[in-house]
Amino acid sequence: MKTDVCIDTSNENMRALRDALELLSGKWKFCILLSLYMHGTQRFKDLLANSVGGITPKVLSKELQDLEDNLLVTRTVNNTKPVTVSYTLTEHAIETQPVINALIAFGVKHRTKIKSK
Amino acid sequence: MKTDVCIDTSNENMRALRDALELLSGKWKFCILLSLYMHGTQRFKDLLANSVGGITPKVLSKELQDLEDNLLVTRTVNNTKPVTVSYTLTEHAIETQPVINALIAFGVKHRTKIKSK
DNA sequence: CAGTATCCAAAGGGATACTG
DNA sequence: CAGTATCCCTTTGGATACTG
């Protein structure tokens, strides 16, 4: 007798994948990270109006908090008048770079693939 | 005078990233793909009960249709009694492998990072 | 400027039962 | 076995206005 398919809940890869998705899945997190990669440190206003097109302040605020809680971005209040706030990637955020690069590569290839359908 | 920050809507990377996310974001798509990578061709029942823990038939059905529409999986009806259906990754699905690997790697590292908080 | 508050619509997803 | 159908709840996200 043979147990043919193992249950993936007990699988480490599946577990790690689900962890990653729980944090990063959704419409905005990767876009924010990419924007910070490309432009470096940015202010709330810049993320809102320029680099992450279409996001609203409420959503951006919430996404940035999630990223901060998970040690992927740092929030810095600047001594300016009026006060400005800067967001920067942490060292740990480097770990997301391969994911983003792979997603972009897939997006590019997928576009041409679907076009030729 | 200097235009300091470009609008990312016109950026190819951001565009590709958003395309990829539109298709692959969510709780299940990557899990289904990973499961097919690990176990090879599988039947609906196996994906449902064994390899993708927790998904319901309605959702699995819908996710598989999405993946099929986007040329990532192939659906095959087998000549058995009762009828069975097999799902296999397409050649094009190889393009998602780097994303999944990167997500898993991130998930592993992120777990240890957050634990030590 | 950097958010929050409020309100609301749509999508995602789960439980359960049912069908060919 | 491989799905669909129905119902319903939660989450996500958008519009808009407001505050320190």
Describe this structure in words.
Two copies of one chain form a homodimer. Chain A is mostly helical and 117 residues long. Chain A has helices spanning 12-24, 29-39, 44-51, 57-69, 97-115; strands at residues 42-43, 73-78, 84-89. A three-stranded antiparallel β-sheet of chain A has the order 1-3-2. In chain A, strand 2 (73-78) and strand 3 form a beta hairpin. Chain A is globular and about 55 Å long. The first copy, chain A, starts with 11 loop residues before the first helix and ends with a helix. In chain A, 31% of the residues are buried. Chains A and B meet through helix 1, helix 2, helix 3 and helix 5 of A and helix 1, helix 2, helix 3 and helix 5 of B. Chain A binds a DNA duplex (20 and 20 nucleotides) through helix 3 and helix 4.
**How would you classify the quaternary structure?**
homodimer
Largest beta-sheet details of chain A: 3 strands, antiparallel
Strand fraction band of chain A?
A: 5-15%
Physical arrangement of strands within the biggest beta sheet of chain A:
1-3-2
Care to give the gist of this entry?
2 copies of one chain form a homodimer. The first copy, chain A, is mostly helical.
Descriptive keywords:
12% strand; 5 helices; 3 strands; 117 residues; homodimer; mainly alpha; DNA-binding; 3-stranded antiparallel β-sheet
